[in-house]
Write a structure and sequence with these properties.
It is a single chain. This protein is of the alpha/beta class. The protein has one domain. It is built from 7 helices and 18 strands. It has a 5-stranded mixed beta sheet with strand order 1-6-9-5-4. β13 and β14 form a beta hairpin.
Length: 318
């Protein structure tokens, strides 16, 4: 199960001279097939809701180059903001590293792969789409790859008519698709009750250079780094009840706010605002095992760190 994905935003943004894709090309091969249950198809706003979901699907598809088909069933809920359950499979770290080495290696992959540990408890839990992308037979089971529930009563269906007291449907769906793909919530197994297993993003959770953190305490601020902890790209969420694989804001103690400006994989969403998949989500997708489209342009993140803090109202993405 994907865990919680929530709302509200704050961001501690630290950057480094890592080559990242700024603009994806339009030659992605990912295909996401949505299915809508009757709670959506019978909604008076079904057409607008489905259009918003498809807009989110289009964004995610444009950011993944793997020749891969992913199936997701969508429904409505009356609790939280959004939640996703996704099937997973266990692989050994040895097999995972071998599979990563056989993929098209980006500059970020080369850096990230060199930091992977020699051993990892009893294995790594990967979602079925990620298993398939890496060539594991365990990803070929039938059925939906994920099930996503959306609380449409507290969502803006479009970005042209925005209620400042509601969250953005498209951003919420992009967040949940990422979790089906294996980052965000399903990128970490912290707090899942499976102490010896990790998700792929757990390898990139650091408390300081060279020191990984698997602590769920709200009094620390671990961060996402693909170069052994030298570069703090974005903090991980440490608020209890929200997904530890989602982004946090670095506040100590952890609060229920996310980044400013908002990022798709923030654990808490900002009311009246929206975002699409950005550099941190693309880097995460890249290093866990997906191929990104060839870029139309590249950028270097500047050395140093800039901290921007801001309090936001929130909606739970559970």
């Amino acid at each position: 199960m994907r865990g919680s994905r929530r709302a509200g935003f704050l961001k501690v943004f630290a950057a480094v001279a890592l080559t990242i894709v700024c603009l994806p090309s339009a030659r992605a091969n990912l295909t996401i097939i949505p299915t809508y249950d009757t709670s959506i198809t019978s909604d008076p706003n079904a057409g607008t809701i489905e259009t918003g979901i498809q807009a989110a699907i289009n964004v995610v598809q444009a950011n993944i180059a793997n020749n891969l088909t992913v199936t997701i069933q969508y429904s409505e809920t009356t609790s939280g903001l959004a939640s996703t359950s996704a099937s997973t499979g266990n692989v050994s770290l040895t097999d995972y590293k071998l599979a990563l080495a056989q993929q098209h290696l980006s500059a970020n992959d080369v850096v990230a792969d060199s930091t992977l540990p020699a051993t990892s408890g009893s294995g790594i839990l990967l979602t079925r789409p990620l298993l398939r992308a890496l060539g594991f037979a365990a990803g070929s089971a039938g059925g939906f790859d994920g099930f996503t529930a959306l609380n449409t009563s507290i969502m803006n269906f479009t970005r042209t008519s925005v209620n400042p007291a509601k969250s953005d449907l498209q951003e919420a769906v992009e967040h949940e698709i990422d979790e089906v793909l294996g980052i965000g919530g399903k990128g970490s197994e912290l707090g899942s009750g499976i102490p010896l297993e990790v998700g792929p993003l757990d390898f990139y959770r650091y408390s300081s250079p060279g020191t990984r953190s698997f602590d769920t305490s709200s009094s620390i601020a671990p961060y996402f780094s693909i170069d052994g902890g030298t570069t703090d790209l974005v903090h991980f969420n440490q608020a209890f009840g929200a997904d530890y694989g989602d982004w946090g804001n670095g506040k100590i103690p952890a609060d229920l706010n996310g980044n400013t400006p908002p990022q798709v994989q923030d654990a808490f969403s900002t009311l009246g605002q929206f975002s699409d998949i950005g550099p941190n989500e693309r880097i995460a997708l890249d290093v866990v095992g997906y191929d990104l489209p060839e870029p139309t342009s590249f950028g270097l993140m500047a050395l140093g760190a800039v901290t921007v803090l801001g309090m936001r109202r929130k909606h739970s993405r559970r």
